[in-house]
Every structure is written in C-alpha cells, then in structure tokens.
Amino acid sequence: MKKDLEQKIIHCNFKEALDIINANGDMYQGSAKVELDIMKMKILTELGLYDESFKLSQNLVSNSQTTPEQQHKIHVERALVFEINDDYSSCIEELKKAEQLISKYPHLKSKNYTNFLIRKSSYYRVTGSSKIAYNLALQAEKYAKTVNDTINMPVVHLIIALGNRRMNSEKELQHYKRALCLYKRQHHYEAVISMYTNLSYYYFDKKEYQPATIYIDSALAIVSKSNVLSYTADVYKTKSMILEKVNKPDSALYYFKKASEYYKKFYSEQRDLKIKELETQYNFEKEKTEKQSLKKNIKNSRVFNATLIISILVLALFIRQLMKNKRKIEKQRKRIYENNLALKTSLEEKQFLVQELNHRVKNNLAVILSLIDFQKEQEKNENYKYRFDDLYQRIKTIMIAHELYTYSVNYNDNALVETQNYLEKIFETHQNSSLRTFTYINDAEKILFNVDKILSLGLLLNELVTNSIKHANPVGELILNLELKKTDENQIIVHYFDNGTVFNFDNNNDSLGLIIIEGMVKQLKGNYTRENAHYKIVFPND
C-alpha cells in the first residue's frame, strides 16, 4: 500500500490517497502508522489544509516511536508548512533540526538530502537571500546527479530557474524547459501543466505573447488530465491575461470566468475536505476515548470485585450504599462527558463556520477589487477610470479593516483594532497605487477602537487623502499630515492637512467625497471644521 500511496502523491491524486489512509489507518500501529501519518501530513499540506497538517505534525513530533528518517521527514514537511504561513523563524528551526539528523545519521543522506536542499533553498529565496538560495539549488542539482535522484531532479531545475529570474533570462528559460522535459518523462501531468503555465508566464512577462500563447494552449490541451483544480484555474487565468493583452476582451472574459469557476470549485473542495478531515479526527478521538473508558471500567470492576469478595460478609450494607453511589457517579460522569463532547463539537463547527465566513468576506472583497480593476482597464473614458480608482480605494479601505480584525466565536461588539497601524496601511495603499508621488506624516496615537468606529475613521481618512492627491497644489513635493490624539475629556481630536496652496474641493462637480466625509463624521457622532485644506474632527471615545 505504501508504494501505491507514493505513486498517487507523485501524480497528485491527493484526495484518493487521503481516502485510502483514512480508511486503512486503524489497521497499522507503531512505525508503520507513523509512516502513513507522514504521508497524510504531506497530502494535507498539498491540499491547502495547513492547520490540519500542523496539528498532525504536532502529534508526530511527540511520538516516541518515530525512526530518525521519519523525524527528518517530519521536520522538513513542518518547515514547508511554516514557510507557506510566513513563519520564517520556525521554518529555519525545523530545517536546522532536519540537518542535525542527517549529520548524526549519515545513512539518511542518500534518500533525503536532495529534498532537504530544495526546502532550504526555498526558505532563503522567500526571505530575500537569493544568492544563498541559488547556491543551494546548484548543490541540490549536483547531489541529485550523484545519487541519480530522478524524482527530485525536475524540482531542482525549477528552483534553479527561479534563481536566475531577473539575472539570466536564457538560463532561466533553459532550466524551465529541462524541468518540463523531465516531468514529461515521468508522465506527471500536473507538473507538466504547471511548467507550461510557468513558461507561458515567462514569455508573457516579456510581452512576447505569441510563444506565451503556444505554451498556455499546450497546457489547455492536457488540462483535463489534471487532478488539481487550482492548476486548472491557473491555466485559464493565464490564458485570460494573454487574450486581454492582445485586445481580445470577449475571449479574455470567457477564460476569466472559467478560471473563477475552477477557483470556486477548488475552494469548495477544500471546504469539503476540511469538514471530512474534522469528522475523521472526531471519530478517531471518540473511539480512542471509548477504548480508554472501557479499559478504565474493566480495571475498576476488577478492583471492586476483589474488594467485594473480601468484605461481603462484614460490609454488606456499606457496599450496597457504595454501589448506589457508584452508579449515580457513573451516570453523572457519562452525562458530563457527553455534554462536554457535544459542546466541543459545536464549538469546533461554529469556529470553522465563522472563520470560513471571514475568509469568504475577504475573498469576495478581493474579487470585487479584481473586477473593478478589470473593468477599469476596459474603460476608455479617463474620467470614469478615475471614478473606478476612487471606488477601488474605498473598498480597499474596508478590506484592510477586515484583514486586521479577526472574527471568532468569542466575537463581541467591543473587539478592538489598533488605530495607528490601520491608518498607516491606508496611506501606504494610496502611495503604492497613486500616480502622484507624496510623503506623509502619520502622527496618530496607538488607540484601540471597535471595528465599526475604525471603519468610519478609515473611510474618512481615505476621502481626505484622495482629495489631497487630486486637488492639492503645493510648492514642491506634496506632504500629507495626520494627527490623532485622545484628550483628558476622553475625546478624540483629529487634524488633517496638506501643504497645498490652493483648495478647490467645493468646485469639484463630484461631491460624493464631501458627502462621505460628512457621513463618516456623523457616524462617529462628532463634528468637524475646515479652513482651506485643514480639517479638524472631534468625536467622543465611547
């Protein structure tokens, strides 16, 4: 079964492999069970179920029955989970532990060192140490050739190609093609599709749309063989991007919709797998608890019977009362256990649903932003393009608030968001997206507001910044200033101004910005005054 599972993992049949492990896991014990759990951890990571993968790895790390090779695999896989979740300090710690095991047990090196070097190179690449990452990739290539590691060789060429990005375009292309050739030899359709997509994007980035189209069409020709919906979605998305650049908006929109459908199916599949995994874990814990309870009851019964035989003649009345009390206690214990189990299950389900809702809200806002950006690119009227930009910034302001605020089953209306960080991100968003350069001074105190108040304050600042970028006419560089502080009377005072010499907000035919400013001040239960481009807003800190 192990070899069958390894082949399914290599060819990305992750769902089928997961079903086999869940169905047969109870049949194995000891080291064999650990090996299955390591495979399951890798599958969960590939399916994007990082929380479940990490939870399983925690059990494996504390398992005393793991062999040194299994420990090495666990640490390398945990490093990948930490890297994906941007926990780079934990990632390098896991890699150090894996490297120590190879040093202590040299016989592990031949089977595992190439993959270890790949993971280590990836860590240094994502943390910005591109030169170290590239040298590690070259070491991986050299070692893979030494031990004839054909499984990992395509990945080695892929990371070498990534190491040559923006340094040596010809070498980057050469290694991409080499990786593609090796994946074709392995009949690894998912990897072939992914490499076609990478090559297409390589030419797309160079604005060479004809070869980009050839490669993405090659991916489309075999995409039906893929078992990974996200790979399929990436193919259609890339095709849409190319068609948009060659002025075929109708076809681009068609492929964009296809990509969206596959992304939707992918997220739905992730949700179903997550629920199924929670159910499997619940059943496992329930069975484990029942076995422990049975063993405990058997042990208690033996002690009780021995005591009964010895004491039955002299302690009959006492034992009778003891039995009554025992039955009462067992019933209470059972009720408490059942209630706790039901509460735990309910809490996990609610926590999942709340987190899924928050995830969907942020995803939907991101989709809305993408649609606005897409529509803006198709719009020829420059005036309407500016309106799309304004709408984009307003929705982006709302999205930032959702990113900083975490919903949970313990949610209440007094949950707080830190002001300075939120306002800083609004300034940064404008600075990154605006064609007009400016600097800003964010002199806001670190005050905590509830999510409703922070959102109103964020939309207010967004309109003020937008207004300054559009209308301020300074001598020299545009400078935006924000001051926010709390007074002894428990009021919040906000001063906002720029260094413009002319203020013509009232002459703007589109007064929506002013309406939003007044509406947000009213939402904050405050008032404001304005002298030219200097706003003073006062509202209670309730």
Defining key terms:
542 residues, alpha+beta, Heat Shock Protein 90, 5-stranded mixed beta sheet, two-stranded antiparallel sheet, 19 helices, 7 strands, 8% strand, globular
Polypeptide structure, described:
- The chain crosses the membrane at residues 303-323.
- Residues 356-429 form the Signal transduction histidine kinase subgroup 2 dimerisation and phosphoacceptor domain.
- Pfam families: HisKA_2.
- The chain is an alpha+beta fold and 542 residues long.
- It has a domain at 416-540: Histidine kinase-like ATPase, C-terminal domain (Heat Shock Protein 90, 2-Layer Sandwich).
- It contains 19 helices and seven strands.
- The strands form two sheets. Strands 2-4-5-7-6 form a five-stranded mixed β-sheet, covered by helices on one side. Strands 1-3 form a two-stranded antiparallel sheet.
- It is globular, with a radius of gyration of 30 Å.
Overall number of strands: 7
SS-based class? alpha+beta
The CATH architecture of one domain is 2-Layer Sandwich
| Sequence of secondary-structure elements | HHHHHHHHHHHHHHHHEHEEHEEHEE
- Summed up, the helix count is 19
CATH class of one domain: Alpha Beta
| CATH T-level fold name of one domain | Heat Shock Protein 90
Outline the low-pLDDT stretches.
Answer: none
User: How far is it from the N-terminal to the C-terminal residue, by CA?
Assistant: 63 Å
How does the major sheet shape up? 5 strands, mixed
- The CATH homologous superfamily of one domain is called Histidine kinase-like ATPase, C-terminal domain
> Globular, elongated, flat, extended or rod-shaped: what is the shape?
globular
**Which strand order spans the largest sheet, edge to edge or round the barrel?**
2-4-5-7-6
GO molecular function, one term: protein histidine kinase activity
Organism: Flavobacterium crocinum
EC number: 2.7.13.3
Protein name: histidine kinase
